[in-house]
Amino acid sequence: MQASLQSADPAVFASVQAEIHRQQDDLELIASENYVSKAVLETLGSPLTNKYAEGLPNRRYYGGCEFVDEVENIARRRARELFMVEGCDIGVNVQPHAGAQANQAVFLTLLDAGDSMLGLDLSHGGHLTHGSPVNSSGKLYTAAHYGVGADGRIDMDQVRAQALATRPKLIITGASAYPRIIDFAAFRSIADEVGAYLMADIAHIAGLVAAGVHPSPFPHCDVVTTTTHKTLRGPRGGMILAKRDLMKSMNSAVFPGTQGGPLMHCIAAKAVAFGEALSPDFKAYCQQILDNAAAMADRLMSRGIALVSDGTENHLMLIDLSRSPAAPDDLTGKHAEAILGEAGITVNKNTVPGEQRSPMVTSGVRIGTPAMTTRNMGVAESVQVADWIADVLTQPADEALRTRIKAEVQGMCRRFPIYPSMG
Ligand SMILES: Cc1ncc(COP(=O)(O)O)c(C=O)c1O
User: Fold this and answer.
1) 258-271 in b/e burial notation, b at 16+ Cβ within 10 A?
2) Contact by Cβ (8 Å): 386, 295
3) Given 88, 159, 255, 394, which is the most exposed site by the fewest CB atoms within 10 A?
4) Cis status of the peptide bond prior to 256, with omega within 30 of 0
Protein backbone atom coordinates (compact mmCIF):
# COMPACT_ATOMS: atom_id res chain seq x y z
CA MET A 1 0.00 0.00 0.00
CA GLN A 2 2.82 2.44 0.84
CA ALA A 3 5.29 1.43 -1.90
CA SER A 4 6.10 3.98 -4.58
CA LEU A 5 5.10 3.31 -8.16
CA GLN A 6 8.75 2.72 -9.01
CA SER A 7 9.07 -0.22 -6.63
CA ALA A 8 5.45 -1.44 -6.79
CA ASP A 9 5.27 -1.61 -10.57
CA PRO A 10 8.54 -1.01 -12.43
CA ALA A 11 6.97 -1.75 -15.82
CA VAL A 12 4.31 0.95 -15.55
CA PHE A 13 6.80 3.31 -13.88
CA ALA A 14 9.17 2.93 -16.84
CA SER A 15 6.42 3.78 -19.33
CA VAL A 16 5.36 6.82 -17.29
CA GLN A 17 8.96 8.04 -17.15
CA ALA A 18 9.39 7.54 -20.88
CA GLU A 19 6.21 9.51 -21.55
CA ILE A 20 7.40 12.37 -19.30
CA HIS A 21 10.64 12.49 -21.31
CA ARG A 22 8.72 12.41 -24.59
CA GLN A 23 6.55 15.30 -23.44
CA GLN A 24 9.64 17.22 -22.30
CA ASP A 25 11.81 16.72 -25.37
CA ASP A 26 9.30 16.69 -28.24
CA LEU A 27 7.42 19.66 -29.54
CA GLU A 28 3.73 19.09 -28.88
CA LEU A 29 1.62 20.66 -31.61
CA ILE A 30 -1.51 18.52 -31.37
CA ALA A 31 -4.22 21.19 -31.21
CA SER A 32 -6.31 19.34 -28.62
CA GLU A 33 -3.49 18.76 -26.12
CA ASN A 34 -1.96 20.87 -23.39
CA TYR A 35 0.13 20.59 -20.22
CA VAL A 36 -1.70 20.94 -16.91
CA SER A 37 -0.14 22.77 -13.97
CA LYS A 38 1.54 20.93 -11.10
CA ALA A 39 -1.41 21.87 -8.88
CA VAL A 40 -3.84 20.21 -11.31
CA LEU A 41 -1.61 17.12 -11.52
CA GLU A 42 -1.38 16.92 -7.74
CA THR A 43 -5.16 17.07 -7.41
CA LEU A 44 -5.62 14.36 -10.03
CA GLY A 45 -3.34 12.08 -8.03
CA SER A 46 -5.16 12.76 -4.76
CA PRO A 47 -7.22 10.28 -2.70
CA LEU A 48 -10.39 11.95 -3.98
CA THR A 49 -10.19 9.22 -6.60
CA ASN A 50 -11.45 6.83 -3.88
CA LYS A 51 -14.77 8.54 -3.32
CA TYR A 52 -18.17 7.58 -4.70
CA ALA A 53 -20.55 10.55 -4.87
CA GLU A 54 -23.48 9.77 -7.16
CA GLY A 55 -25.88 12.70 -7.28
CA LEU A 56 -25.18 16.41 -6.89
CA PRO A 57 -23.71 18.34 -3.93
CA ASN A 58 -25.96 18.06 -0.86
CA ARG A 59 -28.13 15.51 -2.70
CA ARG A 60 -25.90 12.44 -2.88
CA TYR A 61 -26.70 8.75 -2.78
CA TYR A 62 -23.63 8.11 -0.57
CA GLY A 63 -22.41 9.24 2.84
CA GLY A 64 -19.12 10.99 3.54
CA CYS A 65 -19.52 13.49 0.71
CA GLU A 66 -19.05 16.73 2.66
CA PHE A 67 -15.58 17.49 1.28
CA VAL A 68 -16.19 16.41 -2.30
CA ASP A 69 -19.35 18.54 -2.13
CA GLU A 70 -17.11 21.50 -1.35
CA VAL A 71 -14.85 20.94 -4.35
CA GLU A 72 -17.74 20.33 -6.76
CA ASN A 73 -19.39 23.55 -5.59
CA ILE A 74 -16.13 25.44 -6.10
CA ALA A 75 -15.82 23.99 -9.62
CA ARG A 76 -19.40 24.95 -10.49
CA ARG A 77 -19.05 28.44 -9.08
CA ARG A 78 -15.80 29.11 -10.95
CA ALA A 79 -17.14 27.66 -14.21
CA ARG A 80 -20.14 29.98 -14.07
CA GLU A 81 -17.87 32.91 -13.39
CA LEU A 82 -15.71 31.98 -16.39
CA PHE A 83 -18.55 31.63 -18.90
CA MET A 84 -21.37 33.86 -17.57
CA VAL A 85 -22.42 36.79 -19.70
CA GLU A 86 -24.52 39.62 -18.34
CA GLY A 87 -28.25 39.06 -18.42
CA CYS A 88 -28.00 35.33 -19.21
CA ASP A 89 -28.49 32.99 -16.29
CA ILE A 90 -26.68 29.69 -16.79
CA GLY A 91 -26.29 26.50 -14.81
CA VAL A 92 -23.30 24.14 -14.87
CA ASN A 93 -22.72 20.42 -14.61
CA VAL A 94 -19.04 19.55 -14.14
CA GLN A 95 -19.52 15.79 -13.96
CA PRO A 96 -19.23 14.58 -17.60
CA HIS A 97 -16.24 12.26 -17.79
CA ALA A 98 -15.23 13.72 -21.17
CA GLY A 99 -16.48 15.81 -24.06
CA ALA A 100 -18.22 12.88 -25.74
CA GLN A 101 -20.22 12.17 -22.57
CA ALA A 102 -21.24 15.81 -22.25
CA ASN A 103 -22.61 15.74 -25.80
CA GLN A 104 -24.37 12.43 -25.21
CA ALA A 105 -26.15 13.86 -22.16
CA VAL A 106 -27.30 16.93 -24.11
CA PHE A 107 -28.72 14.77 -26.88
CA LEU A 108 -30.51 12.58 -24.32
CA THR A 109 -32.07 15.73 -22.86
CA LEU A 110 -33.15 17.48 -26.05
CA LEU A 111 -33.82 14.67 -28.53
CA ASP A 112 -35.87 11.50 -28.81
CA ALA A 113 -34.56 8.56 -30.83
CA GLY A 114 -34.86 9.36 -34.53
CA ASP A 115 -35.07 13.15 -34.06
CA SER A 116 -32.97 15.20 -36.42
CA MET A 117 -29.84 17.19 -35.69
CA LEU A 118 -27.62 19.33 -37.89
CA GLY A 119 -23.88 19.69 -37.34
CA LEU A 120 -20.60 20.44 -39.12
CA ASP A 121 -19.42 17.65 -41.42
CA LEU A 122 -16.55 15.61 -39.95
CA SER A 123 -14.32 16.06 -42.99
CA HIS A 124 -14.90 19.82 -42.84
CA GLY A 125 -13.71 20.04 -39.23
CA GLY A 126 -16.67 18.69 -37.25
CA HIS A 127 -16.52 16.05 -34.52
CA LEU A 128 -17.56 12.39 -34.49
CA THR A 129 -20.13 13.08 -31.77
CA HIS A 130 -21.94 15.57 -34.00
CA GLY A 131 -23.84 12.88 -35.90
CA SER A 132 -21.20 10.68 -37.53
CA PRO A 133 -22.65 7.31 -38.58
CA VAL A 134 -19.96 5.49 -36.56
CA ASN A 135 -20.93 7.31 -33.33
CA SER A 136 -24.04 6.81 -31.20
CA SER A 137 -25.13 10.35 -32.21
CA GLY A 138 -25.41 9.19 -35.82
CA LYS A 139 -26.91 5.82 -34.96
CA LEU A 140 -29.63 7.02 -32.56
CA TYR A 141 -30.58 10.30 -34.24
CA THR A 142 -31.11 11.45 -37.82
CA ALA A 143 -28.08 13.57 -38.61
CA ALA A 144 -27.59 16.07 -41.41
CA HIS A 145 -24.47 18.14 -41.98
CA TYR A 146 -23.33 21.49 -43.30
CA GLY A 147 -19.82 22.30 -44.49
CA VAL A 148 -17.35 25.02 -45.27
CA GLY A 149 -17.31 26.88 -48.58
CA ALA A 150 -14.45 27.18 -51.07
CA ASP A 151 -12.91 29.83 -48.79
CA GLY A 152 -12.66 27.31 -45.95
CA ARG A 153 -15.17 29.19 -43.79
CA ILE A 154 -18.52 27.86 -42.58
CA ASP A 155 -21.03 28.60 -45.32
CA MET A 156 -23.94 30.18 -43.41
CA ASP A 157 -26.14 30.05 -46.54
CA GLN A 158 -25.62 26.30 -46.61
CA VAL A 159 -26.34 26.03 -42.88
CA ARG A 160 -29.64 27.85 -43.46
CA ALA A 161 -30.54 25.79 -46.55
CA GLN A 162 -29.81 22.55 -44.70
CA ALA A 163 -31.78 23.72 -41.68
CA LEU A 164 -34.80 24.63 -43.84
CA ALA A 165 -34.56 21.31 -45.70
CA THR A 166 -34.12 19.04 -42.69
CA ARG A 167 -35.95 20.99 -39.93
CA PRO A 168 -33.59 19.81 -37.17
CA LYS A 169 -34.66 19.82 -33.55
CA LEU A 170 -31.06 20.64 -32.63
CA ILE A 171 -28.41 22.64 -34.47
CA ILE A 172 -24.82 22.06 -33.33
CA THR A 173 -22.05 24.54 -33.85
CA GLY A 174 -18.46 23.94 -32.78
CA ALA A 175 -15.61 21.98 -34.28
CA SER A 176 -12.44 19.96 -33.88
CA ALA A 177 -10.51 21.38 -36.77
CA TYR A 178 -11.84 24.80 -37.73
CA PRO A 179 -9.41 27.73 -37.74
CA ARG A 180 -11.90 30.60 -37.88
CA ILE A 181 -14.14 32.48 -35.43
CA ILE A 182 -17.64 31.05 -35.11
CA ASP A 183 -20.54 33.45 -35.56
CA PHE A 184 -22.89 32.23 -32.82
CA ALA A 185 -25.42 35.02 -33.46
CA ALA A 186 -25.81 33.94 -37.11
CA PHE A 187 -26.46 30.35 -35.97
CA ARG A 188 -29.05 31.66 -33.48
CA SER A 189 -31.06 33.41 -36.15
CA ILE A 190 -31.16 30.21 -38.25
CA ALA A 191 -32.13 28.14 -35.19
CA ASP A 192 -34.93 30.61 -34.48
CA GLU A 193 -36.14 30.46 -38.07
CA VAL A 194 -36.60 26.67 -37.90
CA GLY A 195 -37.51 26.41 -34.19
CA ALA A 196 -34.39 24.43 -33.23
CA TYR A 197 -32.38 24.31 -30.04
CA LEU A 198 -28.86 25.68 -30.53
CA MET A 199 -25.86 23.97 -28.96
CA ALA A 200 -22.23 25.06 -29.15
CA ASP A 201 -19.54 22.47 -28.56
CA ILE A 202 -16.62 24.71 -27.59
CA ALA A 203 -14.30 21.82 -26.65
CA HIS A 204 -11.40 23.36 -28.57
CA ILE A 205 -11.91 27.05 -27.93
CA ALA A 206 -13.19 27.00 -24.32
CA GLY A 207 -10.05 28.64 -22.94
CA LEU A 208 -10.17 31.33 -25.62
CA VAL A 209 -13.84 32.01 -24.82
CA ALA A 210 -13.17 32.11 -21.07
CA ALA A 211 -10.31 34.55 -21.66
CA GLY A 212 -12.48 36.75 -23.88
CA VAL A 213 -10.31 36.35 -27.00
CA HIS A 214 -13.09 34.47 -28.86
CA PRO A 215 -16.75 35.63 -28.78
CA SER A 216 -18.96 33.88 -26.24
CA PRO A 217 -21.65 31.39 -27.30
CA PHE A 218 -23.92 32.89 -24.61
CA PRO A 219 -26.50 34.40 -24.79
CA HIS A 220 -27.05 32.92 -28.28
CA CYS A 221 -26.92 29.21 -27.43
CA ASP A 222 -29.32 27.20 -25.29
CA VAL A 223 -26.59 24.84 -24.22
CA VAL A 224 -22.80 24.73 -24.41
CA THR A 225 -20.61 21.68 -23.99
CA THR A 226 -16.88 21.57 -23.65
CA THR A 227 -13.90 19.52 -22.73
CA THR A 228 -11.74 20.86 -19.91
CA HIS A 229 -8.36 19.69 -21.18
CA LYS A 230 -7.67 21.61 -24.38
CA THR A 231 -7.23 25.40 -24.41
CA LEU A 232 -8.88 25.48 -20.96
CA ARG A 233 -5.76 23.64 -19.69
CA GLY A 234 -7.45 21.49 -17.08
CA PRO A 235 -7.69 17.75 -16.44
CA ARG A 236 -9.28 15.45 -19.01
CA GLY A 237 -13.00 15.88 -18.66
CA GLY A 238 -16.21 17.44 -19.92
CA MET A 239 -18.73 20.02 -18.78
CA ILE A 240 -22.20 21.24 -19.69
CA LEU A 241 -23.36 24.85 -19.35
CA ALA A 242 -27.00 25.53 -20.12
CA LYS A 243 -29.67 28.14 -19.75
CA ARG A 244 -31.25 27.72 -16.35
CA ASP A 245 -34.56 26.19 -17.48
CA LEU A 246 -32.77 23.27 -19.17
CA MET A 247 -30.35 22.54 -16.35
CA LYS A 248 -32.46 20.18 -14.26
CA SER A 249 -33.01 17.81 -17.17
CA MET A 250 -29.32 18.11 -18.21
CA ASN A 251 -28.31 17.05 -14.68
CA SER A 252 -30.55 13.98 -14.86
CA ALA A 253 -29.18 13.12 -18.30
CA VAL A 254 -25.63 13.08 -16.91
CA PHE A 255 -26.62 11.00 -13.87
CA PRO A 256 -28.41 8.61 -13.95
CA GLY A 257 -29.01 9.06 -17.70
CA THR A 258 -25.57 8.30 -19.09
CA GLN A 259 -23.05 8.02 -16.24
CA GLY A 260 -22.59 6.44 -12.84
CA GLY A 261 -20.40 7.93 -10.12
CA PRO A 262 -18.60 11.19 -10.94
CA LEU A 263 -14.78 11.25 -10.93
CA MET A 264 -14.28 13.46 -7.89
CA HIS A 265 -10.49 13.77 -8.29
CA CYS A 266 -11.09 15.10 -11.83
CA ILE A 267 -13.81 17.45 -10.62
CA ALA A 268 -11.46 18.81 -7.95
CA ALA A 269 -8.78 19.24 -10.62
CA LYS A 270 -11.32 21.06 -12.81
CA ALA A 271 -11.92 23.43 -9.88
CA VAL A 272 -8.17 24.14 -9.69
CA ALA A 273 -7.87 24.70 -13.45
CA PHE A 274 -10.91 27.01 -13.48
CA GLY A 275 -9.28 29.01 -10.68
CA GLU A 276 -6.17 29.35 -12.85
CA ALA A 277 -8.30 30.37 -15.84
CA LEU A 278 -9.87 33.17 -13.80
CA SER A 279 -6.46 34.82 -13.29
CA PRO A 280 -5.26 37.72 -15.49
CA ASP A 281 -2.29 35.53 -16.52
CA PHE A 282 -4.67 33.22 -18.32
CA LYS A 283 -5.96 35.99 -20.58
CA ALA A 284 -2.37 36.83 -21.51
CA TYR A 285 -1.70 33.13 -22.12
CA CYS A 286 -4.66 32.83 -24.51
CA GLN A 287 -3.69 35.98 -26.39
CA GLN A 288 -0.20 34.50 -26.79
CA ILE A 289 -1.73 31.26 -28.18
CA LEU A 290 -3.39 33.38 -30.89
CA ASP A 291 -0.26 35.45 -31.58
CA ASN A 292 1.82 32.28 -31.89
CA ALA A 293 -0.71 30.64 -34.22
CA ALA A 294 -0.90 33.74 -36.43
CA ALA A 295 2.90 33.98 -36.68
CA MET A 296 3.23 30.28 -37.49
CA ALA A 297 0.47 30.44 -40.10
CA ASP A 298 2.02 33.45 -41.85
CA ARG A 299 5.43 31.83 -41.98
CA LEU A 300 4.10 28.50 -43.28
CA MET A 301 2.18 30.24 -46.06
CA SER A 302 5.21 32.35 -47.00
CA ARG A 303 7.13 29.06 -47.39
CA GLY A 304 4.57 27.65 -49.85
CA ILE A 305 2.57 25.56 -47.37
CA ALA A 306 -1.17 26.09 -47.94
CA LEU A 307 -3.59 26.47 -45.05
CA VAL A 308 -7.33 25.83 -45.13
CA SER A 309 -9.03 29.27 -45.18
CA ASP A 310 -5.60 30.82 -45.82
CA GLY A 311 -4.83 31.43 -42.17
CA THR A 312 -6.18 31.24 -38.67
CA GLU A 313 -8.06 33.31 -36.12
CA ASN A 314 -7.75 30.85 -33.26
CA HIS A 315 -5.32 28.34 -31.78
CA LEU A 316 -5.06 25.99 -34.75
CA MET A 317 -4.34 25.77 -38.44
CA LEU A 318 -4.89 23.08 -41.01
CA ILE A 319 -2.21 22.43 -43.59
CA ASP A 320 -3.68 21.36 -46.93
CA LEU A 321 -0.88 19.37 -48.59
CA SER A 322 -2.91 18.91 -51.78
CA ARG A 323 -2.82 22.68 -52.36
CA SER A 324 0.70 23.38 -51.09
CA PRO A 325 2.96 24.49 -53.97
CA ALA A 326 6.15 23.74 -52.02
CA ALA A 327 5.22 20.18 -50.93
CA PRO A 328 5.43 17.18 -53.29
CA ASP A 329 2.04 16.26 -54.81
CA ASP A 330 2.06 12.73 -53.38
CA LEU A 331 2.80 13.74 -49.76
CA THR A 332 -0.10 12.54 -47.59
CA GLY A 333 -1.15 13.63 -44.11
CA LYS A 334 -0.15 10.22 -42.79
CA HIS A 335 3.36 10.47 -44.19
CA ALA A 336 3.70 14.09 -43.06
CA GLU A 337 2.71 13.11 -39.49
CA ALA A 338 5.35 10.35 -39.55
CA ILE A 339 8.24 12.47 -40.87
CA LEU A 340 7.44 15.40 -38.58
CA GLY A 341 7.42 12.87 -35.72
CA GLU A 342 10.93 11.76 -36.77
CA ALA A 343 11.96 15.41 -36.43
CA GLY A 344 10.57 15.56 -32.87
CA ILE A 345 7.44 17.49 -33.88
CA THR A 346 4.17 15.84 -32.83
CA VAL A 347 1.11 16.61 -34.98
CA ASN A 348 -1.88 14.70 -36.30
CA LYS A 349 -2.97 13.96 -39.83
CA ASN A 350 -6.38 15.44 -40.57
CA THR A 351 -8.92 15.42 -43.36
CA VAL A 352 -9.32 18.67 -45.28
CA PRO A 353 -12.52 20.02 -46.86
CA GLY A 354 -13.17 18.11 -50.08
CA GLU A 355 -10.85 15.32 -48.90
CA GLN A 356 -10.00 12.73 -51.59
CA ARG A 357 -8.10 10.34 -49.32
CA SER A 358 -9.31 8.06 -46.50
CA PRO A 359 -9.40 9.33 -42.88
CA MET A 360 -6.45 7.01 -42.14
CA VAL A 361 -4.35 8.67 -44.86
CA THR A 362 -5.72 12.22 -45.44
CA SER A 363 -4.26 15.24 -47.22
CA GLY A 364 -3.98 17.48 -44.18
CA VAL A 365 -2.10 18.11 -40.96
CA ARG A 366 -3.63 19.87 -37.95
CA ILE A 367 -1.35 22.09 -35.89
CA GLY A 368 -2.11 23.91 -32.65
CA THR A 369 -0.18 26.27 -30.40
CA PRO A 370 -1.79 25.81 -26.91
CA ALA A 371 0.80 23.34 -25.54
CA MET A 372 3.93 25.14 -26.81
CA THR A 373 2.50 28.42 -25.46
CA THR A 374 2.10 26.82 -22.02
CA ARG A 375 5.88 26.23 -22.13
CA ASN A 376 6.31 30.00 -22.60
CA MET A 377 7.36 29.71 -26.22
CA GLY A 378 6.51 32.89 -28.10
CA VAL A 379 6.38 34.34 -31.60
CA ALA A 380 10.12 33.86 -32.34
CA GLU A 381 9.86 30.17 -31.47
CA SER A 382 6.64 29.85 -33.51
CA VAL A 383 8.39 31.21 -36.61
CA GLN A 384 11.30 28.82 -36.02
CA VAL A 385 8.88 25.89 -35.66
CA ALA A 386 7.12 26.89 -38.90
CA ASP A 387 10.50 26.86 -40.66
CA TRP A 388 11.29 23.38 -39.34
CA ILE A 389 7.87 22.12 -40.47
CA ALA A 390 8.31 23.68 -43.92
CA ASP A 391 11.84 22.22 -44.21
CA VAL A 392 10.57 18.72 -43.42
CA LEU A 393 7.48 18.87 -45.65
CA THR A 394 9.30 20.29 -48.66
CA GLN A 395 12.13 17.71 -48.45
CA PRO A 396 10.42 14.51 -47.30
CA ALA A 397 13.21 12.26 -48.63
CA ASP A 398 15.92 13.93 -46.52
CA GLU A 399 16.43 11.77 -43.42
CA ALA A 400 19.58 13.61 -42.32
CA LEU A 401 17.63 16.86 -42.24
CA ARG A 402 15.13 15.30 -39.83
CA THR A 403 17.91 14.04 -37.57
CA ARG A 404 19.42 17.52 -37.47
CA ILE A 405 16.06 19.19 -36.78
CA LYS A 406 15.23 16.67 -34.04
CA ALA A 407 18.37 17.73 -32.16
CA GLU A 408 17.48 21.40 -32.61
CA VAL A 409 13.88 20.78 -31.45
CA GLN A 410 15.21 19.02 -28.36
CA GLY A 411 17.56 21.91 -27.64
CA MET A 412 14.70 24.39 -27.82
CA CYS A 413 12.38 22.21 -25.71
CA ARG A 414 15.01 22.00 -22.98
CA ARG A 415 15.13 25.79 -22.84
CA PHE A 416 11.38 25.71 -22.04
CA PRO A 417 11.06 22.87 -19.52
CA ILE A 418 7.81 21.32 -18.33
CA TYR A 419 7.55 19.68 -14.88
CA PRO A 420 11.29 20.39 -14.12
CA SER A 421 11.29 18.27 -10.97
CA MET A 422 9.99 15.15 -12.72
CA GLY A 423 11.53 12.50 -14.89
C1 LIG B 1 -15.40 19.53 -30.73
C2 LIG B 1 -15.15 18.34 -29.86
N3 LIG B 1 -16.17 17.80 -29.17
C4 LIG B 1 -16.01 16.73 -28.40
C5 LIG B 1 -14.79 16.12 -28.27
C6 LIG B 1 -14.68 14.87 -27.46
O7 LIG B 1 -13.96 15.04 -26.30
P8 LIG B 1 -13.40 13.78 -25.49
O9 LIG B 1 -12.27 13.24 -26.29
O10 LIG B 1 -13.01 14.36 -24.18
O11 LIG B 1 -14.52 12.81 -25.38
C12 LIG B 1 -13.68 16.64 -28.96
C13 LIG B 1 -12.37 15.98 -28.83
O14 LIG B 1 -11.45 16.18 -29.53
C15 LIG B 1 -13.88 17.77 -29.78
O16 LIG B 1 -12.86 18.28 -30.49
Assistant:
1) bbeebbbbbbbbbb
2) yes
3) 88
4) yes
Give the HSE-up count for residue 173: Cα atoms under 13 Å, Cβ half-sphere.
Answer: 33
Ligand 1 centroid vs 23 CA: distance in angstroms?
21
- Decide whether any atom of ligand 1 lies within 6 Å of the 95 Cβ: no
pLDDT given at position 299: 98
- pLDDT at residue 278, as a whole number: 98
Domain ranges of the chain: 43-277, 282-415
Question: Would you identify the CATH topology of the domain 282-415?
Answer: Aspartate Aminotransferase, domain 1 (3.90.1150)
Pairing outcome for strands 116-120 and 170-173 = parallel
Q: Does ligand 1 come within 6 angstroms of the Cβ of 98?
A: yes
Residue among 235, 233, 210 at smallest CA distance from 373:
233
Residue to mutate, 137, 172, 176, ligand 1, most ligand atoms under 8 Å from C-beta: 176
In which region does residue 167 sit, left (phi positive, over 0), alpha (psi from -120 to 50) or beta (all else)? Answer: left
43-277 — its CATH code? 3.40.640.10
Nearest residue (CA) to ligand 1, atom 5: 99
Q: Tell me the catalytic residues.
A: 52, 54, 201, 227, 230, 236
Report the pLDDT value the prediction gives residue 360, as an integer from 0 to 100.
Answer: 96
- Strands (E) in 127-181, as ranges, are 142-146, 170-173
Give yes or no for a contact between 253 and 101, defined as CB atoms under 8 angstroms apart.
no
CA 178 to CA 176: how far, in whole Å? 6
pLDDT along the chain (423 residues), means of 10: 93 97 97 98 98 98 98 98 94 98 98 98 96 98 97 97 98 98 98 98 98 98 98 98 97 98 98 98 98 98 98 98 96 98 98 94 98 98 98 98 98 95 79
Distance 291 CA to ligand 1 centre (A): 24
Please state the pTM of the whole predicted model: 0.97
Q: With contact defined as beta carbons under 8 Å apart, do 335 and 322 qualify?
A: no
Contacts of 38 (CB under 8 A, 6+ apart): 419
CA dihedral (7, 21, 203, 180) in degrees, to 10, reads: 180
Q: For residues 153 and 30, what is the distance between their CA atoms, to the nearest angstrom?
A: 21
- Residue 114 has what pLDDT? 98
CB of 350 closer than 6 A to ligand 1? no
